[in-house]
């Protein structure tokens, strides 16, 4: 899809067609949404769709998850006129941090961390990541926020897959994602192509 083309009819999720399938093998995510961020209207519509369910909800801060969640999270924070907190992979912050181990979508054991001086008790945080596949990364971010006394105001991602971890998150927190119900089974099976 042309990065300047805007369709005449822009239904929720129209911009998902901007994403590209993995051509490099199993060490990479199955789909790359980064081209969506290059499309001005696509990015704006994606952020608007993510924020629609939270209209009127009290949100004090937006937190994005390392690394691609930084892009989408910063865009969400800018629209909301809220601050942005980076939740990082361990070893990247030079200040006092709180750490949380987790297993990522590829089955690798990792550690995530957040600075301890950014979340005060009761602070309502919207967590944003590019994708929730198995839910391990998002669940670790939730645990960090809650361990510091923050409140998870919601979870937003381009896609929240219908996995055990994805369901666990959706059952406990207000969530939003951009995949229309008719396309969800394809995303859950990692099948690209919906034209």
Oligomer: single chain
Strand content: 25-35%
Structural class, judged by helices and strands? Answer: alpha/beta
Largest sheet: 7 strands, mixed
- The percent of residues in helical segments reads 25-40%
Count the DSSP helices: 6
* Secondary-structure element order, N to C: EEHHEHEEEEHEHEH
Low-pLDDT regions: none
Order of strands in the sheet with most strands: 5-6-4-3-7-8-9
Structural features, described:
The protein is an alpha/beta fold. 29% of the residues lie in helices and 27% in strands. It is built from six helices and nine strands; from the N terminus they run E-E-H-H-E-H-E-E-E-E-H-E-H-E-H. It has helices at 34-38, 40-51, 68-80, 136-147, 164-172, 184-188; strands at residues 20-21, 31-32, 61-65, 83-89, 97-103, 109-115, 124-132, 151-160, 175-177. The strands form two sheets. A seven-stranded mixed beta sheet has the order 5-6-4-3-7-8-9, with helices on both faces. Strands 1-2 form a two-stranded antiparallel ribbon. Helix 2 (40-51) crosses helix 3 (68-80). The longest helix has 13 residues, at 68-80.
């Amino acid at each position: 899809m042309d990065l300047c083309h805007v369709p005449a009819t822009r239904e929720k999720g129209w911009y998902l067609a901007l994403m590209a399938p993995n051509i490099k093998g199993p060490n990479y995510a199955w789909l790359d949404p980064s081209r969506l961020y290059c499309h001005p209207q696509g990015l704006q519509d994606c952020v608007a769709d993510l924020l629609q369910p939270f209209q009127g909800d009290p949100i004090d801060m937006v937190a994005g998850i390392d690394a691609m969640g930084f892009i989408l999270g910063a865009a969400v924070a800018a629209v909301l006129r809220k601050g942005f907190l980076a939740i990082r992979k361990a070893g990247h912050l030079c200040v006092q941090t709180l750490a949380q181990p987790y297993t990522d979508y590829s089955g690798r054991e990792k550690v995530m961390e957040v600075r301890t001086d950014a979340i005060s008790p009761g602070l309502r945080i919207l967590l944003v990541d590019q994708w929730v596949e198995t839910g391990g990364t998002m669940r670790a971010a939730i645990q960090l926020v809650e361990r510091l006394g923050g409140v998870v105001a919601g979870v937003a991602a381009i896609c929240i897959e219908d996995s055990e971890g994805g369901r666990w998150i959706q059952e406990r927190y207000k969530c939003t994602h951009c995949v229309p119900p008719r396309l969800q089974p394809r995303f859950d099976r990692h099948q690209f192509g919906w034209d």
